[in-house]
Design goal:
With about 450 residues, this protein is an alpha/beta fold. It is about 40% helix and about 25% strand. The protein contains 15 helices and 16 strands. A six-stranded mixed beta sheet has the order 11-12-13-14-16-15, sandwiched between helices. A five-stranded mixed beta barrel has the order 1-2-3-5-4. It binds manganese (II) ion. The site of manganese (II) ion (MN) has 6 residues, from loops.
Length: about 450
């Protein structure tokens, strides 16, 4: 007998159910339980955990319109959670709407709807959800969209990799939760995330990855659900369907309006799969600026508040714009053309540019990229132990892709390269100190080979 259709006076005899919520009530507790379809309540003086599996007996009474169980026996049960969760996901009512971006998204429909079902079912089951979001406008916009569906714990991720250290911290924090759902948003697909992901999975957590970085670390094989355009395409354009945008589509499939966040996510990552307004660019700049200055412990509400408080928003915007303007002259002074050819290469000596935390190395390289003009070009921002790539359309069309170059350089100079990755158009490398110039020479050689 389904909890959804149960009538007053009906008797439950060892009915399997799960506790989804607990509240203090009249000196005891009020529990909400589900059978994966409907919900009922019961009162008890006994303390029970959220997610506890039960075998419940009693009689259904109608109390002010709420169906309650007058309990005669509560027994703890085991082994039913997974099947209940599966049932709740199957029964979740999702909306299959036209996507905001183009037809490619049809390939992703099943995964978007799957993620939507998972979140709606998690809400119904009172499941613990933990979201790690990347510390940029794309990651933050996506996190704002997902938290409209269901409340979850959130934590900002200030690195592009899900490290072993990250996973140890999460496993520790989640150890008492029943089958927690961990969401990684806008990161986690690099080779350097692989060990951390495997450990997290081994701890019993379910992993949902929403990302648009090339799946170099084969995260799609580890995640329980992998919402990424790279699952359906090897073209560098796949990166344009940004993680924040995908999160917006998941929210929409759950019946939550979040479309206005899509343009912000895309503005942040310089994508135009959805229309991007000047206002979107402005908000993205504000979020990027704030994210640069905020630590990992930052909760999402910090950003939500800033967007809602006009005065704070305006001052952040002014400061972010000032910081960007201030470096422009310095970038011009420290930018050199090191290869003139079908695809030109420019370098920027970032060590000589006086910038506090914002704009960071990536954004400084982007500024140089904007100054490089429309001819096919690669711009390399250089610092003492790394470099950052920005590659424009013309160079991409000639086959010069950052991830390809990184792969070639890693193979030929394994002792100098300490890590790195990214998209075809934007990526970075960590290099042993003292060897950045040798790596630049190698990149010049490779670009000449690819686009002679
Ligand atoms: Mn992104």
């Amino acid at each position: 007998m389904s909890f959804r259709k149960i009538a007053e006076g009906a008797k439950l005899e060892n009915a399997p159910c799960i506790i989804t919520q607990r509240r203090k009530h009249k000196g005891g507790f009020l529990y909400i339980i589900t059978d994966g379809e409907g919900e009922l309540e019961f009162e008890s003086g006994e303390f029970l955990q959220d997610g506890q599996e039960l075998s419940l007996s009693g009689t259904i009474v109608n109390e002010y319109g709420f169906m309650k169980v007058k309990v005669s026996r509560i027994e703890k049960a085991e082994g039913i959670y997974a099947s209940f969760l599966a049932k709740a996901e199957k029964n979740a009512e999702v909306k299959s709407l036209p996507f905001l971006a183009d037809g490619f998204m049809e390939k992703m429909r099943e995964r978007i709807l799957g993620a939507a079902r998972k979140l709606l079912a998690a809400k119904k089951m009172g499941r613990c959800i933990f979201l790690r979001f990347h510390n940029d406008a794309d990651g933050i916009a996506g996190a704002l969209a997902l938290t409209r569906i269901v409340s979850m714990q959130t934590s900002q991720q200030n690195s592009a990799n899900y490290t072993v250290q990250d996973s140890m911290r999460d496993i520790g924090n989640l150890q008492y939760e029943k089958r927690p759902l961990v969401i990684l948003l806008d990161f986690g697909c690099g080779v350097e995330s692989r060990e951390g992901l495997k450990l997290l999975k081994a701890s019993g957590a379910e992993i949902l990855i929403i990302d648009h970085h090339p799946d170099d670390g084969k995260a799609g094989e580890i995640a329980d659900l992998f919402v990424s355009p790279w699952a359906f395409s090897d073209e560098e354009n796949a990166s344009h369907y940004t993680a924040g945008y995908l999160a917006v589509e998941i929210a929409r499939a759950c019946g939550k309006e979040a479309s206005e966040l899509a343009g912000i996510a895309c503005a942040g990552d310089k994508s135009s799969v959805v229309p991007v307004s000047e206002k979107d660019k402005e908000v993205a700049l504000v979020l990027d600026y704030m994210a640069t200055y905020s630590g990992f412990a930052n909760k999402l509400d910090f950003y939500k508040n800033a967007l809602e408080k006009k005065e704070l928003y305006d001052s952040v915007l002014v400061q972010a714009r000032d910081a960007l303007d201030r470096i422009t002259d310095q970038v011009k002074l420290n930018m050199k053309k090191v290869l003139a050819g079908p695809v030109s290469i420019y370098t920027i000596d970032i060590e000589r540019i006086k910038s506090k935390e914002f704009p960071g190395k990536g954004k400084i390289t982007t500024r140089g990229f904007e100054l490089a003009g429309n001819e096919p070009a690669v711009v390399l921002g250089l610092w003492k132990d790394g470099l950052s790539f920005r590659i424009n359309d013309g160079a991409i069309q000639k086959g010069v892709h950052a991830n390809l170059i990184i792969e070639l350089v890693k193979k030929e100079m394994p002792d100098f390269i300490e890590g790195g990755g990214g998209h075809a158009r934007a990526a970075s490398l960590r290099i042993r100190e003292g060897f950045v110039n040798s790596v630049v020479e190698k990149i010049v050689e490779k670009v000449k080979e690819i686009a002679p």
